[in-house]
Design a protein that fits this description.
- The protein is of the alpha/beta class.
- The chain folds into 2 domains: 197 residues, FAD/NAD(P)-binding domain, CATH 3.50.50.60; 103 residues, FAD/NAD(P)-binding domain (3-Layer(bba) Sandwich).
- Helices cover 24% and strands 18% of the residues.
- It contains 7 helices and 17 strands.
- The strands form 4 sheets. Strands 4-3-2-8-17 form a 5-stranded parallel beta sheet, with helices on one face. Strands 9-16-10-11-12 form a 5-stranded parallel beta sheet, covered by helices on one side.
- The longest helix has 22 residues.
- It is globular.
- The termini are close together.
Length: 355
């Protein structure tokens, strides 16, 4: 079986960035993508999300970002990614859903339901979209209304005439309230008091936020989202919801869920028709379990040797789209770093690659 120098799992923004830099370094590799077409997680986002709504799509290396206009994001970004793959002739194979990664006497085996590939190094760029997080609260299985998670958000028109409880303290919750409060009745609950920022979110501020998340993964802790350290900002399209008081009516989390609504900690009851769970995602890394990369703290510890993408327990493994690189800014920066990490690992093995 041919042994590649590297395999990248995932062809979203981070994976394409890695592939670009591996190609420039002359490293023989392939990219395995679970989707049937280019676009990463962007192709699965709701139709109502336009390029003016998104918080930003950083440009891929050597290219310009998609235009910030009224195009649907789930069309504009995938089209951009597809053109990028063609332009740079990136070696993407799809659809390939990786089930597990194993170690064969120092050679990595990447398994899918189709076949197995082998490689000396691996870059995991699977992101989080396939792992939506839904917390459990007492009684939630009795709710007769709708449970909707961000991953299945159908667009604002679906909620017309319904009383919607938005759960979550991140950017998605703010965005959902911005879209829904002007057209229907909304409530907002979060576990913690939201932290707002009103200053400009400069590239320097973004880098500082990424650095804070890096500190967690460097300690082997499970990563938190970048927005958890940046604070929340309101954009122009959310000002009408602000005027209507949608953000001011935020409440602490409810105690339990009942068939027609939720019960607050003080015993009061609130009727709702829909619970919209903007509760985020977890890293899609289950296929890496056979490599036993997790630390005792529960996360995959990444080195802080200037890259922040190398798994401490196995330097052959690079992770992008994990922790500090789980953002468009962090993902691009991590692409170059991961390619350098692959190059260093290959140099250290000093073993010829069979062909």
């Amino acid at each position: 079986m041919e042994i590649k120098e590297s395999i990248v799992i995932g062809a979203g923004q981070a994976g394409l960035s890695v592939s670009f830099h591996l190609q420039r370094l002359g490293i023989d590799h392939i990219v395995l993508d679970a989707n049937e077409s280019p676009g990463g997680a962007w192709q699965h986002r709701w139709d109502a999300l336009t390029m003016t709504d998104v918080h930003g799509v950083a440009e891929l290396p050597g290219s310009d970002p998609p235009a910030r206009d009224e195009q649907r994001a789930n069309i504009a970004v995938p089209n951009s990614f597809a053109a990028y793959e063609r332009e740079h002739e990136l070696p993407v194979i799809r659809p390939v859903k990786v089930d597990r990664v194993t170690d064969h006497d120092g050679i990595l085996g990447v398994h899918s339901d189709r076949r197995e590939w082998r490689s000396r190094t691996l870059v995991n760029a699977t992101g989080t979209w396939t792992q939506p997080f839904l917390p459990h609260y007492p009684g939630m299985e009795t709710f007769l209304g709708e449970h909707v998670h961000t991953v299945a958000y159908p667009g604002p028109e679906h909620f017309l005439g319904k009383r919607v409880l938005v759960v979550g303290g991140g950017a998605s919750a703010v965005q959902f309230l911005g879209a829904l409060a002007p057209i229907t009745d909304t409530l907002w609950v979060t576990r913690r008091e939201p932290i707002w920022r009103d200053d400009d979110f400069t590239p320097e501020a973004g880098a500082a936020a990424v650095a804070l998340v890096e500190q967690r993964v460097a300690q082997g802790l499970p990563p938190e989202s970048v927005v958890s350290v940046t604070g929340l900002m309101l954009r122009q399209q959310e000002r009408e919801a602000e005027r209507l008081g949608a953000y001011a009516r935020r409440r602490p989390m409810f105690h339990s869920i009942e068939p027609d609504g939720v019960r607050w900690a003080d015993g009061a009851f609130e009727r709702v028709d829909v619970i919209l769970w903007a509760t985020g995602f977890r890293p899609a890394i289950g296929h890496l379990a056979p490599l036993q990369l997790r630390s005792e703290a529960g996360g995959i510890q990444l080195s802080r040797n200037g890259r922040g993408t190398t798994a401490v327990k196995d330097p052959r493994i690079q992770l992008v789209g994990y922790g500090p690189s789980a953002s468009t800014i962090g993902g691009n920066r991590a692409g170059r770093a991961a390619a350098k990490g692959v190059q260093q690992s290959l140099q250290q093995t000093r073993a010829p690659i069979p062909h």
